[in-house]
Design brief:
Strand 3 and strand 4 form a beta hairpin. This protein has 7 helices and 5 strands. The strands form 2 sheets. It has a 3-stranded antiparallel β-sheet with strand order 1-2-5, sandwiched between helices. A two-stranded antiparallel ribbon has the order 3-4. It has one domain: NADH Oxidase, CATH 3.40.109.10. About 35% of the residues lie in helices and about 15% in strands. The N and C termini lie far apart (about 35 Å). It is of the alpha+beta class.
Length: about 180
């Protein structure tokens, strides 16, 4: 699949997944795509944990209050460390966001679907901390995102996007050229 095709086809998938395991080699490729993302001052603040153990995944989906029918057979958990790149500037959010986008594109290009779960798990109830404990994540790392990975059972369809001209211009805002 061409990169631009993957970008156009990528969207959040919240449907049911087929109960087909995701091979570890595919999970490795997805994670490598994340690790290959740019990182502010090359501090490499993003770390990843692939989860394909059904018992661990069941605990996660229970914490997330996700119906079993929508549970993917694998996931990638995204961790970050707050490391200053220079002076008092930290780019960990940008680092893990770039890693997540790379992984989402890899996921789609490999025939899988996913959804970027961040706000849902980092909200006031701190599901992310419970997930991190299950994964034995050490202090100094924050679990910030959960990416389910699997083959869509339903036909994936994306949202309607605004027209290019409503959000992008040349040389001046709102096309005032």
């Amino acid at each position: 699949m061409e990169v631009l095709d993957a970008i156009r086809q990528r969207h959040s998938y919240r449907g049911k997944y087929k109960k087909i395991p995701v091979p570890k080699d595919d999970l490795r490729k997805i994670m490598q795509a994340g690790l290959d993302a740019p990182s502010g001052c090359n501090k490499q603040t993003t770390s990843l944990i692939a989860v394909d153990d059904p018992g661990i995944l069941a605990k996660f989906y229970e914490l997330m209050e996700m119906p079993a029918s929508k549970a993917a057979p694998a996931a990638v958990c995204v961790l970050t460390q707050r490391i200053n790149a220079y002076r008092d500037k930290c780019f960990s959010v940008q680092d893990y966001s770039a890693a997540i986008q790379n992984m989402l594109l890899a996921i789609v290009s490999m025939g899988y679907q996913s959804c970027w779960y961040e706000g849902h798990i980092t909200d006031d109830d701190r599901i992310c901390d419970k997930m991190a404990k299950i994964l034995n994540v050490p202090d100094g790392y924050d679990l910030v995102c959960f990416l389910p990975v699997g083959i869509a059972q339903d036909n994936p369809s994306g949202p309607v996007k605004k027209a290019f001209e409503e959000r992008a211009w040349f040389n001046s805002f709102a096309g005032n050229q």
